[in-house]
Amino acid sequence: MKRMKKLALVFAALTAISSVGFSACGKKEKKISFEFSVDDVLAEYDASQYVYTGEPCTVTMSHWDSAGPMEKATTELVLEGFHKRYPTIKVELDIISNYSETYAKTIASGKLHDVFMVADGEFRIWAEGGKMQNLTPFLSTSTILTSELIENDMLDGALERYYFGEQNTLLCFPKDIGPMVLYYNKDIFTRMGVELPPSDRIMTIEEATKMWKSLTKTENGKTSIYGLASMTSEGLVWSAGGDYLNDDRTAFPTEEADINALKKAYTFLQKAVCEDKFIPDGAVSGGLSGMDMFCAEKAATIVGGRWEVSNLRTLDFNWDIAYVPAFEGENMKKNYWSGSVGYAMFNGSKNKEAAWKVIEYFGSPEGQALLAASGFSVPIYESVAYDENVLEREKALGPQNYEVFIESAKGQPAGTHTYIPSQRWLKEGYNALAANLYALDASERWSVDKYLEEVKNKLNNGFLR
Amino acid sequence: MIEKNALNELKKYKAKRVLAKVLTYVLLTLCAALILIPFLFAFVTSFTEPMGIFDFKWIPSPITTENYEKLFTDYNILGGLLNTLIYILPPITIGVLTSAMAAYGFARVRFPGRNLLFFSTLATVLVPGIITMIPSFVMYANIYNWVGTPLPLIVPGLFGAAMTMFFMKQYIEGIPKSLEEAAFIDGMSRGGVFFRIILPLSKTALIAQFVLSFNGAYNDYLGPLLYVGTKEELFTLQLVLQKIQTKGNTPYTLMTAGAVMALIPTLTMFIFAQRYFIEGIVMTGLKE
Amino acid sequence: MKLKTRNLKEYCWGYAFVAPLIIGLILFLLYPLVSAVVYSFSDYDLFHKPEFVGFANYANVFKDAVFWKSFKNILLYSLSVPVTIFVSLILSVVMNQDLKGMKTYRLIYFIPMVCSSVAVMFIWKWMYAPYYGLLDSFFTKMGWKAPLFLDKDHFIGSMVTIALWGGLGGRILLFTPTLRNISSSLYEAARLDGAGWWQIFFRITFPSISPITFYLFITGMTGVLQEFTNFNVISGGVFSETTIVPVWYIYLYTGEYGYQFGYASALGIVYGLVLTVFVIINFMAQKWWVKYD
């Protein structure tokens, strides 16, 4: 025993020494600095709007860090501005890793922060938890977030997804919108002699199909380049005028329009994967995600979110963005879903006024300007999004067609994961059964009608719980 | 004549021995190679450039250490390692001891309720940890107020673990009773028997359990996630490695580099322990 | 009179020895376990107080086709336990000889155990991948047709291979001290009596290590039946009836399927009961093959 203890001690000592040694000369917390100062941005706005007449206090705020240190730096930037405007309110920022997994448990223990972040996917279910403060009274008396501003400047749909319940109470205020666009590899287009996608309008599916087909390169049965790495069906179903569930989200749709749209969407996808083969099927792409394939130049295009930009900027090839193609019609703008994050207030908070000031600030044009300046997300106000400095910088860094992000954000609704709290209808229904649509062996493959029939059975069998 | 036969027998015997040796090595090497392949694969991947993985070669060109560098600069991997060691060494060293104590109690001492207690203890590990996760969290949050600290990871282990206890019980039951009886006759108490006889005899088993428990705690992810997962400074090594993944596309090269780095402590520990196994050939004292 | 005090002393010692472990369990496991039982009889969504619903959750558990399918999946997978134990035993015995290099071999077998399971699963996923994967390239180079390792027909086999690969080390680690503990005099005596290695194995080696084998079997089965991270990682989080396993399914009810802790707890408790019955049966079966001193 003694010897073992000695060994353990020696071992521990060695590790301790080496780690101290390494960390001393190794890692330094990367200080992220921006090329402008907070004061410059603040100078553009009227200081007198920012009035707080309450007691000096401390507001606790929770935030996630899914996008890494940049996200933290950006948030702190906004808080810097906030503090200049409201010197008597101190904000304690808690960066919580693995936010979605752990915050629900924090809610269960009742110890929420005064201001806490809510992703649109969790919104419904956390809202049902009843810990969110109704923000409507705050909003209606706000002098910064006037109804004029919201109606005219705010991007459509930004606020909508945070209403809840029969009375349509506003429970969160949006922080940003994450639209989805079609990323494309310019070099592959040039090599294959295919015309680049238009940057001023949404391509129709017919046009896009032709484009994708001509981008796909197959030799001896093995495809070396796919036209499109991956695409999910939301944009197709919505632009075709349909939906996945009925209106009150309790069963498989019964309206003909919905069912026809579903058929149209899945027929397109099935053909793309099985016949025209410009989208790889799951088995083929194996462990690779769509983004992996795109980055490895094995796919010419891919649908992706705004957040992919910082990663893509490190790649060697030329790329840009275009609108996600959709079916022609009045719903064409719903060409895909967009993500979003908002802030909610804990209804048990002791500092509601101050907490509102924080939420209001993040949602104000000034707060959004600071957020946008870091190039991180699409701000919720058109004027801020189209600000000259922002545009210039973004275009210089890439992509050139930056406007596509903003315009896409205007039409894209919240994703299917926000329909109802449980994802079971998606996971075990639409998604799990879809494998049968794309079976490699044609005899095992389901027809689209059969697929929809099976999904309907699953969903209507007490499955939406 | 007899001599010739004897010589032949000897030759046959020697030949058999050589054959056995050869077979042994062949078998072991074959298995070892199979075991090593995925690991080699990971090792090689960790030295390739991020985009190079799609055209895999056994010797990457170029060989780069950028993945390892990134681990040190972008991720606090050493901090994670240090934290991990701090969180798991105390409960493991003390926990193995307390488990062994309980094991001895269950194995050799007769007392009322022994079987019931034993089975209840075992039963507690049969319930999937998932469902006790939430009430555990609530308990640590409200009753103990330990959330956000590594205490929920450290303290319970100090009291011993059911599975470790179970193993030690099996092992102790294999130790001949006659040894203890001899000690009793000499006037030693139960406690004395445990510390002076049983423990020394179980050294190798204890070390084995130490290594295994170390390994288990080292790889634990869900526990630290819940209790220190919110504060980056308190992250364990697994949590630091996990962060590598949450950035869109999976950087295989970084991850394999991280996995290789994560290997080093436990492997080192095993090397130490191994030497002890070999040297500590147990003298059972049963040369009667 | 003397007998009584001696017994009392015995009892005291007994309790003293097991006290730390029991106290630890009471302090840290009692509340969660009791809560889990309470939740299983209620409707609990984490935000509101649990609402009593009687046996409703349990009734649903028995009707839940997906749950029982996942159970079937994990049972097939659990065949890996006896296989792994058997192979580890063979290897341990082989390495028990005093030949050069045994230490190194043991080290090699131990390596998979030490790797973080998440990283390991990614590596295997990569290896099993069609077209790009290592195994696929290997098969094609050898001229064989590469099967789709992760499809319906091959999935369990592929997972068992991974379990075998990773499970050898730990078991060899535990067999080794036990094998060494067997007195060499026993072996010598047997050899002098002319026993072949077959007989030596069955009459001496196996009975001596049967307690450890029993331990490995029980812990192996209970461990395997509770696995989920590897299945989750290798299927990329995508649900499929081929790859779903009980604990993963329960996990879904604590997050993605809404916060239904009542139902999740009921599922967990039913599963736990099944495991308990299994363990009890095995304990009773001990007398037929496990030899204690």
Description:
- The complex is a heterotrimer of chains A (465), B (288) and C (293).
- Chain A is an alpha+beta fold.
- Helix content of chain A is 44%, strand content 14%.
- Chain A has two domains: 38-179 and 338-411, D-Maltodextrin-Binding Protein, domain 2; 180-337 and 416-460, Periplasmic binding protein-like II (D-Maltodextrin-Binding Protein, domain 2, 3-Layer(aba) Sandwich), CATH 3.40.190.10.
- Chain A contains 21 helices and twelve strands.
- In chain A, a hairpin with a 2-residue loop joins strand 8 (217-219) and strand 9.
- Residues 19-29 of chain A have low confidence and may be disordered.
- In chain B, 74% of the residues lie in helices and 0% in strands.
- Chain B has helices spanning 2-46, 66-74, 77-108, 114-123, 129-144, 151-158, 162-173, 177-185, 190-201, 203-219, 222-228, 237-245, 252-279.
- Chain B has two domains: 2-46; 72-279, MetI-like (MetI-like fold, Orthogonal Bundle), CATH 1.10.3720.10.
- Chain C has a domain at 64-247 and 281-289: Orthogonal Bundle (MetI-like fold), CATH 1.10.3720.10.
- Chain C has 13 helices and two strands.
Short description:
By secondary structure, chain A is an alpha+beta fold. Helix content of chain A is 44%, strand content 14%. Chain B has helices spanning 2-46, 66-74, 77-108, 114-123, 129-144, 151-158, 162-173, 177-185, 190-201, 203-219, 222-228, 237-245, 252-279.
CA-based shape of chain B: flat
The counted number of beta strands of chain A is 12
Which spans of chain B have pLDDT < 50 for at least 5 consecutive residues? Answer: 279-288
Proportion of residues in extended strands of chain B: under 5%
Oligomer: heterotrimer
N/C terminus separation of chain A: 56 Å
**Average residue pLDDT of chain A:** 84
State the fourth-level CATH superfamily of the largest domain in chain A: Periplasmic binding protein-like II
